Amino acid sequence: MQIFLVGGAVRDKLLGYPYSEKDWVVVGATHQEMIEQGFTQVGKDFPVYLHPQTKDEYALARTERKTGNGYTGFQFNSDPTITLEEDLARRDLTINAIAETETGDIVDPYNGQRDIQNKILRHVSHAFTEDPVRILRVARFAARYAHLGFTLAEETRLLMEQMVLNGEVDHLVSERIWKELYRALSEPTPTQFIETLRSCHALKKIMPELDALFGVPQPEQHHPEIDTGVHALLSLKRAASLSDSTRIRFAALIHDLGKGTTPEETLPHHYGHEEEGVALVDHLCNRLSAPNEYRDLARICTRFHTHCHKAFELKPSTLLKVLEQTDAYRKPDRFEEFLICCQADAQGRTGKENTAYPQAEFLHRAYQVTSNINVKALLEQGITGKDLGEAIRRERLRQLKILKQAENKPNAHTE
């Protein structure tokens, strides 16, 4: 039995990049031998085991043979005669096909170290085309390492494009798409995930609502970048600089989906795109099996981002409706996330990245002055039931009128 450290831990150690998880491959062992040594099997489909002490994952060296569509259509062979080189050959990228011995020696049969040095994401072999998940993984690695200067090898991009044309991407399941998207959103350059998928035409299959934004114009006075798809990426980029929250980043990315359905005769204006976008957000999130909290934040960002941009123009009654309909009083933390999304939208424009966005602070104050109503005093006046709710609402309106009188600032954005 020989044990090797493989995959991400070796790759990131060579890169000097932080890592936490360690994966190991075991050569020359059987299932029974792993069980006898105290390992616990964790996969029904794969010969993967947890170490009895460290709980790291140990997998028997294996080869695989394509037997059907999608990423589940494989037959595995984990015979103890399988070599380390054969196991590494089935991996996606050369930078992930490097192993380290127990004494610290590097085993690199597919020149992964060279591609690390040259900062290239390159497939190991043509077997790459057998698993559509690899398209998502490559896009995620692009998001992870773009800030270090990594780029996608053209021959790998062409291979990914061919996989899309062959219909392999059509067999991806929603849970796996969401898993890779979620992980990509947490990376330093999440926009690169979307750009990579677009470069091989996979985005049109995976997120057609988002892909539809590219090439759609917007008014240049508000959007110097003009292209709506470019604006979506700039909003995501700005959101990533403002927050580590993947919910905020996701909402910023898809807040303008409604602009992809604007009738051509009204372009470059997008009247009513907020309402149009809500249904598209629902369709996208349902198809990707996105968690409810991601969908809900994206919905309110889509529906109310223009209200936030026009905050100083809104009447007190409209301000109160925004606070109520975004559920700010019951979910104040989400309301703060909404404000960050709106800031990312306003600053996600060419040359506007550092433009002040006082609307967010204004709406934050609007929430504060209307969330501390003295309900006890109203109860002492004998106001209860439906009358109490109406009294609270009147008091909130009164506070918003006072706030409005103290504010007299122009809007930074109107569309």
What does this structure look like?
It is a single chain. By secondary structure, this protein is α+β, with helices and mostly antiparallel strands. It folds into three domains: 1-111, Beta Polymerase, domain 2 (2-Layer Sandwich), CATH 3.30.460.10; 119-206, Hydrophobic Seed Protein (Orthogonal Bundle); 230-406, no CATH class. The chain contains 19 helices and eleven strands. The longest helix is centred in the last third of the chain and has 22 residues, at 385-406. The radius of gyration is 26 Å and the shape is elongated. The termini are far apart. The mean pLDDT is 92.
Concise summary:
The protein is of the alpha+beta class and 415 residues long.
| Unreliable parts | none
- Note the run of SSEs as H and E: EHEHEEEEEHEEHEHEHHHHHHHHHHHHHH
Strands of the widest sheet, in order across it, are 3-4-5-2-1-8-9
Number of domains: 3
Mean pLDDT reading: 92
How are the elements arranged and paired?
Layout: E1 2-6, H1 8-15, E2 23-27, H2 31-36, E3 40-41, E4 48-50, E5 57-60, E6 63-66, E7 74-77, H3 84-89, E8 99-100, E9 106-107, H4 112-118, E10 120-121, H5 133-145, E11 151-152, H6 154-165, H7 174-185, H8 191-199, H9 203-206, H10 208-211, H11 228-242, H12 246-254, H13 273-288, H14 292-309, H15 316-325, H16 332-347, H17 358-371, H18 375-380, H19 385-406
Parallel strand pairs: 2-5, 10-11
Antiparallel strand pairs: 1-2, 1-8, 3-4, 4-5, 6-7, 8-9
